[in-house]
Specification:
Helix Hairpins, five-stranded antiparallel sheet, alpha/beta, Beta-Lactamase, Rossmann fold
Length: about 675
């Protein structure tokens, strides 16, 4: 059973690491201490299989503890993994390796990385323990054999055959005259097949030259130790550690050598795995730094617009036009910030498999027209830098599609916004065609631009989370690298797929480039057409004879609602707490509608809703809340709310929703 020593001056870290170790290795013995000095004592007494060592400690830092451990004959073979959240630079890594550490992890550590490193150390420790034990056994047996050789050659041969290490004797020309069964097993041949064969028949020419270099040393009566790659009978290559001792005749002439052969292929693979894990960890650190820098930039930029212009509006004497311009800037920055928050929430829900798909029939051409109308307002179009083109293959009445319209709009909007971001002039074209594969129809959509293009070596990573074609700190274009990842995952949920074709981003000056994103969705041509008639939005509402109870503990949100409803002339009643809302509702029978915040300081909006419905089951109650995750709308409806609107609230949408219930 594994025995692991953890040295960390932080008690919380020890508790967390111990819990993770016990989860990874049920039944393992976890030793802990908060002192490097005590850790050295415990290591000598308990002889753990692996030592997890913090670098920054008050009494003795991890580098010095590691040096002492590696200089002590009792514990120097125990693998040491340095763990730190502070000393993460390259010089610290080098210092850690120079102190004798076997691995270096930076916090926070992912579970796969921690497990991979720890298992690699355990495998190496186990392999080396076996090697040392067998080496000692072998040394004892060889010594015993030497003493008894003159008494009984047969006894010697029997002894050699019982050793699990490969033993052989080769003459001065590297021809085998003796091999034991263990060596035959290592090479994959029978003993009879190997006797008389030259070592070069089991190696490559390059490897055999290495053997001859070692032979020169042995002819000078020097033992040699080296690694040799052999080719087994089945063609498999194995890495062998060889210890060769020369033999000379009475005249001092070199006659050959006894060799001990140990297969270290598994250990070499473990070392290679460890190096790869280190490379992945370093790449992970780089991507983490790039992501944090990007996230900081993308969050602070809209916040700067919101806070900066808000401060100017509050403390300056401005003209009406300036107020309108600054307010527009605040709204744009707020929408940018909301998009980032929505993207992070979306990817979290998708990764947690909590996204729900609801399929509805809708007119594809109308939806594309709506999307096109929204983008026509972009500055690049208004300034004649870019033309936007829409192409529909199906006629109106034949364009009914059954899928999640909200998710479809999100996918297409993501791709078109992406095209605008990377296109400075030219055209952006989007549309669809009907395709058939094995008698199954599907729609193939495309978004084509004349932008900067995507290098071929970057086209495979742009659909990964938080990755972009340029993820350096000096990149020219914004974004946090979630749009395409969300798009790909949503398409999988809808039964489609996405890919990109691009000129590569390295075209000569003056030559048009660009990228085309394609995606597919299932399509049933037999779907019945739907009506595309829509009613015009109501611009003015007259609710002068209506009373609305607003239950909201945040004064800024209430002031926004009050301002949004001012032109309607509705009478507003305001309460900040749930209990006050219940008493106000009981004493005012003329209330026509309730706007209910869900998170209140005393009792939840869910409970208040239930109480109000008991008093008047017909009163319309609209939940207005910052709870916007999957399932929150259902919770509100189950509590008795008639409808649901999420914060940040758009005034137009709020008025339309209220009007629906005041008719």
């Amino acid at each position: 059973m594994e025995k692991i020593l953890t040295i960390d001056d932080k008690k919380n870290n020890l508790t967390a690491i111990k819990a993770r170790l016990e989860d990874m290795f049920p039944g393992c013995e976890v030793l802990t201490t908060q002192s490097g000095i005590d850790g050295i004592k415990i290591a000598k007494e308990k002889l753990p299989d692996v030592i997890l060592l913090d670098i920054v400690m008050p009494d003795m830092n991890g580098f010095d503890v590691c040096k002492q451990l590696k200089s002590d004959e009792i514990v120097k073979y125990i693998p040491v993994i340095l763990i730190t959240a502070i000393e993460t630079d390259i010089s610290s890594r080098i210092k850690g390796l120079e102190s004798g550490a076997d691995a270096f992890l930076t916090m926070p550590i992912t579970a796969p990385e921690f497990s991979s490193q720890l298992n690699a150390m355990l495998r190496i420790k186990k392999a080396e323990d076996i090697l040392r034990t067998k080496k000692k056994e072998l040394e004892k047996l060889v010594n015993k054999q030497t003493k008894e050789l003159s008494e009984s050659e047969e006894k010697f041969r029997t002894l050699i055959e019982t050793i699990i290490e490969g033993i052989a004797y080769a003459d001065e020309n590297e021809n085998f005259s003796f091999v034991n069964q263990a060596l035959a097993n290592i090479f994959g041949y029978s003993k009879e097949e190997m006797i008389g064969k030259n070592l070069k028949e089991f190696t490559s020419p390059e490897m055999f030259r290495k053997v001859l270099d070692q032979t020169k040393l042995r002819k000078q009566e020097e033992s040699s130790q080296y690694e040799l790659t052999i080719i087994r009978k089945n063609g498999e290559q194995r890495i062998i550690a060889v210890t060769a001792t020369p033999t000379v005749n009475n005249e001092g002439k070199y006659e050959g050598a006894f060799g001990i052969f140990h297969d270290i292929s598994d250990r070499k693979q473990a070392e290679s795995d460890l190096k790869q894990a280190l490379k992945r960890a370093e790449e992970s650190d780089r991507l983490k730094s790039a992501f944090l820098a990007t996230m900081s930039h993308e969050l602070r930029t809209p916040l700067n617009g919101i806070i900066g212009f808000s401060e100017i509006l509050a403390n300056s004497e401005l003209s009406v036009d300036e107020v309108k311009d600054f307010s527009s800037n605040i709204l744009t920055s707020g929408n940018d910030l909301l998009q980032i928050v929505n993207d992070i929430i979306d990817i979290s829900l998708i990764e947690a498999d909590e996204i729900k798909i609801s399929k509805d029939k809708f007119s594809l051409n109308k939806t594309l027209k709506d999307i096109n109308t929204a983008f026509i307002k972009y500055d690049k179009i208004q300034n004649n830098q870019i033309d936007i083109i829409i192409n529909n293959e199906l006629e109106e009445g034949e364009d009914t599609i059954c899928t999640d319209e909200t998710k479809f709009r999100q996918i297409l909007n993501n791709l078109i916004k992406n095209a605008f971001k990377f296109t400075h002039q030219g055209t952006i074209e989007f549309g669809y065609t009907v395709k058939t594969d094995n008698d199954i129809s599907f729609l193939q959509f495309y978004v084509k631009d004349t932008g900067i293009g995507i290098p071929e070596d970057k086209q495979s990573i742009i659909f990964e989370l938080f990755r972009q074609a340029d993820d350096s700190h000096t990149r020219k274009y914004g974004g946090i690298g979630l749009g395409l990842a969300i798009t790909e995952k949503l398409l999988k949920l809808l039964g489609g797929k996405i890919w990109v074709e691009s000129e590569g981003g390295n075209l000569p000056a003056g030559k048009a480039g660009g990228s085309t994103f394609f995606f597919t969705l299932p399509f049933d041509p037999e779907e019945k057409p739907i009506s595309t008639d829509t009613k015009a939005d109501k611009i003015f509402y007259d609710w002068k004879d209506k009373t609305i109870l607003v239950v909201e503990d945040n004064i800024i949100v209430y002031q926004f609602i009050e301002l949004a409803l001012k032109r309607t002339k509705a009478c507003l009643l305001w309460t900040k707490k749930g209990k006050d809302a219940i008493s106000t509702f009981e004493s005012n029978k003329e209330i026509d509608l309730v706007l209910m915040d869900i998170q209140l300081p005393d009792i939840s909006g869910y409970e208040v809703t239930k109480q109000l419905k008991k008093i008047n089951k017909d009163i319309p109650i609209i939940a207005q809340t910052a709870f916007a995750l999957e399932g929150d709308k259902e919770k509100s409806l189950e509590a008795g709310c008639d409808d649901y609107i999420t914060k940040p609230i758009k005034a137009k949408k709020l008025l339309s929703l209220i009007d629906k219930y005041l008719k």
